[in-house]
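Handout, section B. The chain below has 118 residues.
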Amino acid sequence: MAKNIVFIDQIGRTIFGELTDNNPDPGLLDVRNPAMINVNQLQNGQLQVQIFPLFFREFVEESHREKGTTWTFNKSQITVSTDTIVDSKLVDQYDRVVGNVANVVPTAGPATIKLFDE
């Protein structure tokens, strides 16, 4: 099971992703498939949580999409949460958005919109 990480980046975005141990530099943090968590208040007072990948997989060459993308963050420019255990519903939503989990069962929903003509 992958270890997830939550942090605030240098421009104030809340970032969630899969922490990797690939970077030998102790001042750098590698995160696979980082996504921004966006929270909006609706008119009825409820909160809406949205997750947006920092880089959409549709922009990656098709033969490399399943691998995902890894991004390097400078630890001196972010604020890392050291004791947050993220609710499983948020992790499930993240997995559906970035496609990290092969066993997520898709639910019936709107048709997929292609970003590029083939």
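Note. The helical segments are 88-98. Compare this with the example in section A.
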